[in-house]
Amino acid sequence: MLDFAVEKEFFNKGYKLIAALDEAGRGPLAGPVVAACVIFRVDQKIGDEFAQINDSKKLSFKKREALYLIIKNAFLNIGVGICDNQTIDRINILQATFLAMKKALGAIKQKPDFIILDGGFKIPNLSLPQEAIIKGDEKILTIAAASIIAKVERDRLMLEFHKQYPRYGFDQHKGYGTKLHIERLKQHGPCPIHRLSFARVNI
What we know:
The protein is α/β, with parallel strands linked by helices. The protein is built from 8 helices and 5 strands, in the order αββαβααββαααα.
């Protein structure tokens, strides 16, 4: 079970508001990359409802949806940032991920004292102190919470895109390069939400 041990270490250093960030959608062949930010305060109450929070990739669709509501109600502030496939094609997926994270930070009402994020790279050109933590979504509760928000928000977007482009099966694979998705790409070619800069799209 994840806990707030890492966050408490930063609170002990004098920080009062910590922003935890993660993204969903770096790997897919279609759709946006979505980042989420949750703000965790020094006096945050820790309840039993947090016990089931984990890396979004390890949770079922139904469990993510349930935890999404718990996280929304429990955390001080939540921000979401989105970069579409055209932006990804223009600046590359890593830079688009950083941009989505900056948008998520810009969507919150209170400026944090410190940022923790999943991955091996810090967000460039950011004045706030930050720490990038590899596999942070598996180790740190607030990053896992951000991963759930990002995943649920992105999945909902992909379900809407499925209504526009039903022939690709976005409701099933959410844009990832599954066998079904590749087959549909071969049959129909890319649609307006495909990432044309990704080699597997141009088959």
